[in-house]
Amino acid sequence: MRTLALLICFTISFATYAQIANKEADVKAINKVLKKARIAWSKNDIEGFMDSYWKSDSLAFYGKKGVTYGWENTLDNYLTYYPTAAYTGTLSFKINAINNIAPDCYYVLGEFHIKRDIGNADGIFMLVFKKINGEWKIIADTSA
Question: Could you tell me the CATH number of the domain that includes residue 110?
């Protein structure tokens, strides 16, 4: 009986450690995607920035003007509202939380800050990341 109890404790401890290690790896990978997007944005590379998004008609972007569906439509909106480097400026993020909500799915809460000569822009966001074909992609974005 004692051996069985030790085996159960060991199994639970190992499973807990594996979950923590997986979450740490996932958070690190998601932060890497966000860093790459931030650098692309700050170089006025909107298409490079959009590499972080799921290239699908089901991508959902919720903004001040309502919902936009689809990767192409989201890209078009970014290109319209941020046509030059003067508009994209230098992007920074403050990440407030990254939490697991389902297997291979996390939400990210944060703040964005765009420093630019034409006037700074600041706001908040919630991103939903999903691991698709081994890559972390944003499948939904709510920014305001």
Answer: 3.10.450.50
